[in-house]
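Work through this protein:
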Amino acid sequence: MADFQNKVALITGAAHGQGRAVALALAGEGASIVAFDLAKPMPYPGYALGSESELDSLKREVEALGSHCLTAQGDVRRDGDIVRAVDAAVARFGRIDILFNNAGICAYGLAHELPEEEWDAMIDINLKGAWLVARRVIPVMIRQKSGVIINNSSIAGLRGMNRLSHYAASKWGLVGLTKSWAIELAPHNIRVNSIHPTGVNTPMNDGLAELEGTTTQEIAERSAGNLLPVPWVEPEDVSAMVLYLASDKARYVTGSQFVLDAGLLTR
C-alpha cells in the first residue's frame, strides 16, 4: 500500500471492464482516482459502453474503500473534455501520478469492406485519444518530475488478427507511442509501458457476441485461441499487471511491452 498512498491515478474508460478493475485495485491500495469515461452510447461500435450509472457506482465503491474519487464524463477525442478533467484533477489533488490509457473500442470487419468512418472511429478513440489525453497529463508529470503512463494495447498490438485490421493498427500504434514517449520522458523521471492482454472477460465480449450473433466463448476463441485452456483472462489479472508497473517495484522499467496472453503468442 505504501507505493500508492498520496498517489493520484487518472483512468480513461473507467466505468466498467478493465478500467473499473484497475480503478478499484489502485483505490484499494490507497490511490485517489480520477475516473474518466464517455458514459453514454455511441453509434459505432454499437454495443453498450460504460454508463453514467456505472461511473457513479464506481465513485461509491472507491470511496467505500477509503479513497477519494473524482469522476469526469467526456470523450477522449475531444480536447476540451480532457482539459476539464485534467484541470479538475489538479485543482482537487494537486497532481497526477499515474495515467492508465484504457479507453477503447473493438469491432470486426474485413479491411477492404470497412467504411471510412469506422476506421476513423477506431483509430481516433484507441490511438489518437491516448495521445490527446497524454499530451495534457504529461506537462503535469513534468512539473512533478515523476509519473507513470501505462497504455492498454492488446495482443493485437503484437500480431495480426483476422477481421480486426483497424483494431490491430490502433493497438500497434500504441506500441510506437509507448516507445517514443519512454525516450522523450525519461529525463523527467516519467516511465511509459504498454500492456498486451489476450481477450478479457468484460462487457465488451458480450457486446461483440451480440453484434456477431454468437456466444462470448466463440468470440474469445475466434479472436485469440489461447495456449492455456482458458477462453479469456479476468479484469483483475490486468489490474495486477498495472499495479506492478505503476509501483516502485518497477521503478526502472520503461519502454517495454508486457504480455498477458495465456500463451497466445507461442502458437
About this structure: The domain at 8-266 is CATH 3.40.50.720 (Rossmann fold). Residues 33 and 69 are 5 Å apart (CA to CA). Helices lie at 17-28, 52-64, 79-93, 116-144, 165-185, 203-212, 216-223, 235-246. The beta strands are 8-12, 32-37, 69-73, 98-101, 147-152, 190-197, 257-260.
